[in-house]
Amino acid sequence: MTRKEVRRRLARAWWLQVGYTLVPLFIMGYLFGDGEPAFPALQMPLFIVGLASMFLSLPLFAGYKRALVATEAALGRAEEPGAWQALARQRRKAFVAAGLPAWIAALAVPFGLNAVALVLLATSSLVMLYLYRIPRQLG
Q: What CA–CA distance (Å, rounded) separates 87 from 63?
């Protein structure tokens, strides 16, 4: 597989992850957004948990950065395919942590979490996902 194909595949995976991250929030908003909050006392704790979940991404981002550096060092050498695979594997793990704030926001919709808080959590997930895009300099 060529470097261009690998980059295309990784870019496609990134866009799919954006969808996997945001679609549950839209679905929950559509299904439960207009209803009466089920248990409004959970709004603030769920928002705090969503914010705290961003910190789970820190160690995974460090691993992703190491994998990026290793991939850059392996470009043009025999280790390049393995480096791309390791980078993709590390990035998949990091995608889960990056999506947590938006997924927690989706779970908080039936409890009546404010729209501003929902947007903040979804935006934080998008910003974290943006950090996991493959830089142009790589390849």
A: 9
- DSSP string covering 47-115: HHHHHHGGGGHHHHHHHHHHHHHHHHHHTTSTTHHHHHHHHHHHHHHHHHHHHHHHHHHHHHGGGT--H
Long-range contacts of 70-75 (CB under 8 A, 24+ apart): 71/138, 72/137, 72/138, 75/3, 75/138, 75/139
pLDDT confidence tier of residue 139, bands split at 50, 70 and 90: low
| pLDDT tens-place string over residues 94-133 | 999 999 999 999 999 999 999 999 999 999 999 999 999 9
Query: Taking the model in full, what pTM does it have?
Result: 0.90
